[in-house]
User: What shape does this take?
Amino acid sequence: MSKIRTAVVGLNMGLDHAHAYKLADRSELRWVVDLDEAKAAKVAEELGCGYATDWTKIIDDVDAVSLCTPHHLHAPQALTAIAAGKHVLLEKPLANSEDDCLNVIRAAEQNNVTLMLAFVVRFLPAVRKLKEAVDSGKYGKPISAQGWVEAFLTPAPGTWFASKEKLGGGCLFSHGCHYIDILLYLLGEPDKVSHFGTRVGTDWMEGEGTSHGIIEFKSGALAHLVTSWGMKYKKTPAKFQIHLTEGFLELDNSMWTVTAISKDGTETLYQRPAEYPSRRGQNVLFEIEHFLECIATGQRPETDGHEILKSHRTIWAMYGSGGVPVTL
Assistant: This one.
């Protein structure tokens, strides 16, 4: 089978995409693109590909493109690539409004191209094992889930991610969307949501820099997610803890270890294998390989636009709740 010619636009988060494409057997990395020409040239030299500062100039030379650019550019750039008949792996979020999301989804369907969202956490092996454990029934029914996404960003007024309009909201939409997606992935369809956000400690942001979100699922399970870019000092218990009627499951902060506690004692369900290399792009490689497989086989991506719109709608409902429970 011939290689899929790929390009990466935006070399911040896109740097991991570029390295993963270089590692993937199905990919021929053709181009890296960034407005910073020196950065693009350096990455291109390292990975043995071409570089550019204007992605539209190289689009005809590729089959698929990763768009890893600021959030407010996702919809227009995705629509341009799709109109050119290119498969698109789009960094989160899909777009900053529901109308833009739906426009991109429809365009991909009409042009018969693969559209996938780069929800990298969904594809990590430990997260897959956590899903398997929840679904197995061995630990009973989920009662309560807690998640912690605690980070600190150096104050950066004037940058695009300080803008509520360009970011699409605050830290919950930009960063927490990964983990809202995981809660839906693990626990099913949400029923009611509520949310509080604050700018204390992140007053350089227009949107919330710290978020507490609550979800009640149709199963009756509850979940609470803390997301922050304002926590200088932290001692996070884990990434996720899930209490079930017959046990307890934990995903550690590295997102490489899953532990279970039940009547049988404490058990490590998954741990990073020694043979997994520590190299740039390794964590992203799982989603990159899924994207390339979907292009090659025509299968539906697990994180296509319809799937990811569920997490976006959950967050938008949270934002509209004003701290009062809202039924989805």
Q: What stands out?
A: The CA atoms of residues 11 and 39 lie 8 Å apart. The chain has a mean pLDDT of 96. The radius of gyration is 20 Å. The longest strand covers residues 142-150.
